[in-house]
Amino acid sequence: FEGREDIIIASKFSPENSSEEKLTNSLDKSLKRLQRDYIDIYQIHWPPAEIELRGVCNILKKFANQGKVRSIGISNFLEKDILLAKEILGDKLFSHQIEINPFNRSYEADFKYLHKSLKIRTLGYTPLKGILKLKKNSNKYKLLLKISQKYKKKINQIILKWLLSLGDDLSLIISTGDVTHLSENIYFEEFNMSSEDLLKIND
Questions:
Q1: Residue 51 pLDDT grade (very low, low, confident, very high; cuts 50, 70, 90)
Q2: CA atoms of 164 and 178, how far apart (whole Å)
Q3: Coil, strand, or helix at residue 21?
Q4: What's phi and psi for 105, nearest 5 deg?
Q5: Residue 119: exposed, middle, or buried by beta-carbon count in 10 A (0-12, 13-18, 19+)?
Q6: pLDDT for position 1
Q7: Which residue stretches of the chain are H helix?
Q8: Starting from the edge strand earliest in sequence, which strands make up the sheet with 121-125, in order?
Q9: For the chain, how are helix, strand and coil distributed in percent, rounded to 5?
Q10: How many CA atoms lie within 13 A of 138 on its CB side?
Q11: What is the residue-averaged pLDDT of the chain?
Q12: Residue range 159-172: average pLDDT?
């Protein structure tokens, strides 16, 4: 990739590949496909059993020490598993990937302050989940429509802007199969919303 320093490459592995042999093979295949010497963030897709998690974290720490992986990420972990991973990986544990959207507020309820205390970045996936299912006669839809018209933006851009306002440790993983939506999602940060409007969505 040109401009490699501006690109963060992340990859995941499944719990069934948690043995050292399978995990080494999985990482090496990813590096070969990507034609890279290292992966920026190598992520555990789902938490394995606790006894396996200790082993997996030690293997990942070994990969980091070898330079094959810059940082380690976890996904969909409970608090006890996060704490165990942090204990073993220390500063190598970079991120925790969780679902975050207007209909899943677990980031605020369960993870925001935990992540901050452990210095772990939050990666939020499916940030726009459920938006298309909002009924047009619902109060939430009417509010979002009113705010989007005020700023002359799409509702999905308003939602993304609001989500990012929830925490300075939060990054969003945004995916779409539509080129128009892709452009909208890329440039959603290029406007400012008042704290009053952000609070209205938050309620």
A1: low
A2: 22
A3: helix
A4: -105, 25
A5: exposed
A6: 46
A7: 20-34, 50-66, 79-89, 106, 112-118, 139-151, 155-164, 179-186, 195-202
A8: 10-13, 39-44, 69-75, 93-99, 121-125, 170-173
A9: 55, 15, 30
A10: 9
A11: 90
A12: 93
Residue whose structure tokens are 């993983």:
173
Q: How far apart are CA 99 and CA 138, in angstroms?
A: 23
Alpha carbon 86 to chain centroid, angstroms: 17
For the whole model, what pTM was predicted? 0.89
What's the rounded Cα separation, in Å, for the pair 193 and 141?
Answer: 18
Q: What is the mean pLDDT of residues 88-106?
A: 96
C-alpha–C-alpha distance, residues 202 and 166, integer Å: 9
d(CA 130, CA 155): 12
Report whether pLDDT(196) > 60. Answer: yes
Give the distance between the most distant pair of CA atoms in the chain: 56
CA pair distance 192, 117, nearest whole angstrom: 28
Check if the beta carbon of residue 51 is closer than 8 Å to that of residue 61.
no
pLDDT exceeds 60 at position 3: no
CB of 107 closer than 8 Å to CB of 167: yes
Residue type, 39: I
pLDDT on residue 16: 82
